[in-house]
Amino acid sequence: MARTALLIIAQQGYQDVELQGTRDGLTEAGFEIVLASKEAGPCAGKLGGKEEAIIALRDVNVNDYDRIAFIGGPGMRSYADDADAVRVANEAARSGRPLGAICIAPTILAKARVLENKKATVFGEPGGPEIALLAQYQAIYTGDDVTVDGQIVTANGPKAAKEFGRTLAGM
């Protein structure tokens, strides 16, 4: 039976390179990929990519997936305050299944309070709002490209995407 990874992207403005790198790292390890977004349907990448979300966030059952990851990009900023995104992050963390977030998406995990007292990384400049938000929610910022703490993996941006996907697959 194939393992399945749920990758959550923004409807508008997901980070194309992060999605592709993460997807490559997971598919090379034998995972099937399911895309989710705020709504099922077409999604547009920041760099012009086009993807189709198969499932709306409100309909996600975390028990249907072996891995769950939030992909970054400017469109993900609003997901940190999205009740469905926070629910998915909380349920995934409570279930003990591997959970990931890349670029600015670790802010979603922080606001879901699943990074408290955990090491994490995020895209952003020292002293910037993303790093400050992690600190506000008691995450321990590492500044590394990819950080693993327990069953949670975070990454800081496009250049770390494939390593992020491989790391998530290997958990």
Brief summary:
The chain has helices at residues 16-27, 83-95, 106-111, 129-136, 161-169, and strands at residues 3-8, 12-14, 31-37, 41-45, 50-53, 55-56, 67-70, 99-102, 119-120, 140-141, 146-149, 152-155. It has 171 residues and is an alpha/beta fold.
Strand order of the largest sheet: 6-3-1-7-8-12-11
Order of helices and strands: EEHEEEEEHEHEHEEEH
Content of β-strand:
25-35%
In DSSP terms, counting alpha (H) and pi (I) runs of 4 or more, how many helices? 5
Radius of gyration: 14 Å
Distance between the termini: 18 Å
Percent of residues in helical segments? Answer: 25-40%
- Here the CATH topology equals Rossmann fold
Q: Tell me, briefly, the overall form.
A: globular
Largest sheet: 7 strands, mixed
The CATH class turns out to be Alpha Beta
Q: Write the CATH homologous superfamily.
A: Class I glutamine amidotransferase (GATase) domain
**Mean pLDDT, all residues:** 97
Spans of 5+ residues with little confidence (pLDDT < 50)?
Answer: none
Number of strands: 12
* Secondary-structure class: alpha/beta
Indicate how many domains the architecture comprises.
1
CATH architecture: 3-Layer(aba) Sandwich
